Structures are given as C-alpha cells and as structure tokens.
Amino acid sequence: MAQAIPGPAPLQRRLGVVDSTAIGLGSMLGAGVFVVFSPAAALAGPWLLVAVAVAGVVAYCNAVASAQLAARYPSSGGTYVYGRQRLGEWPGFLAGWGFVTGKTASCAAMALTFGHYVAPGLATPLAVAAVVVLTGVNLLGITRTALVTKILLAVVLATLALVAVAAAAGPHAGGFTVIDAGGGLGDDSAWGVLPAAGLIFFAFAGYARIATLGEEVKDPATTIPRAILGALGGAFVIYLGLAALLQWQLPAGQLARSTAPLLDAVAASPLHGFAPVVQFGSAAACLGALLALITGVGRT
Fold it and tell me: What is the total count of domains within the chain?
C-alpha cells in the first residue's frame, strides 16, 4: 500500500506585535519616503498635506480589509490564500502570480536604487550583491529577518529625525504655488490632489507584508490587526510631518523639481554637514524595503 506523501511542515509562529510592526513600517519607509514628496508636490502644490491625508484614508480602508483577511486566514501567501479561499483556485493562482511578478520587479528596482545611492558606477553588481545577501538573511529564518529589519528601520528613523530637525531649524522659504506638468507655476487648483495621493499611496502599501507572513505571527487574530494598523499609523504621522516641514522650508519650485527633497532640506539648513547621513539612511531604507519584498515573495 502506497504511503501518503507528507505536505510541507507548518512554519513556526515567532513574530509578536513589535516584530510584525517593524516589518510593516520598514516596508513603508523604503526609498519612496526620500523621493515621493517632489512629484506629489508638483501635482498637489499647496494641497500636498491633503494628498497625504487622502492617501492615508485609502490605505486605512485597504489595511483594515487586509487585516481581517489575514486574521481569518493566517497562512503564508497573502492574496494568493485569500483569493483561493474566497473565490476559487484560479483567482487565487492569478492573485499569487500577480503578486510574485510585481514584487519581483519591485525587488529589482529597489536593489538598483540601493546601488545608485551607494556607487552609481557599480549599481548593478551592488544590486545583485544586496539581493544575494538579503536572500541569505531570509533563509536564516524569520527571527533573523526581523532583527535585521529592526536594525535598518532604526537607521532610517534616525535619518528622518535628522531631516525633521534640519527642516525645522532651516530658513523658512516655503511657498504654496502649484507647479504644473510643464514645469511652470500654475494656479491653486486642487485637481492635482488625487494623482498626488495615488503616488503617496504606493509608499503606504508595505503593511501588506505583515499579512503575507500570517503563518509566522503569534496569535494572528490579535497581532496582525494591531501590527498593520500600528505600522500604518506610524508611517502616516511620519509622512504628514515630513510633508509639512518640507513645504515650510523649501520654495515650491525647488520642492517640486527636486530629485532628493530630504537631502535638499538638510543641505539648506545649519545641519548641512550631515548631508552624507541622509544618503546613508536612503541606502538603509532601500535595503529594508528590499528585505521585506524578498520575504514576502518567498512566502507566497
């Protein structure tokens, strides 16, 4: 009589609220926080804070749904599991492969962004090295992944705190003029709020990593909703505060056209000597987001 082939062993539940929140927040404070305010300001102008608020509300609605699904189906795979359980095998299959395909492209983009921050001439080799090293961290287990994530997150939070202090201490030169798509100064129309909010929303999307790790979370019915909402709330406060400070300090045209608005804020302040710290923090943010992406793709 043939013996049944055993299925894969279940993953161990080792993530508490703090670790889960750190993974979600580390995903949301990736490279996007260092660049997203410029294109968003170019679209929304004086309504930038409104755009951040709109993105936060939309992200909250999606996060609540993700938290409920992850608590109901606390297994690795995220959208693949939910689609399969609620809609059937093919919707689950398409959702899972859609996630893997999209996030694999995101991994490549984030790794290359890290390479360009560190050494533009060696961007591709550095990107490959980052993927290999962080994949190794992922293979060591979720506790090692959470530890490295918390270290990188601490570096990023310290960098953002430096930017906030620099922007507050710098000269007030901010303006409230909309920059139109052609690069000229436009009117004060609020039509740019929604496309700006769409850009900012992508920066909030990292809370989904917590749901993808549902099989490794302790007491998922309680931990997952707390971690998702906690990470989203923390990211929202940080994004809103930085947007307000950047608008207060930088002229509207400079903010809208900058390729590195947080670096510009430090460079224009009495703390301009700390500009290399911002570049280091940007690289750390890329690695944190990349690690979360690799972790999510591996679980799916």
Answer: 1
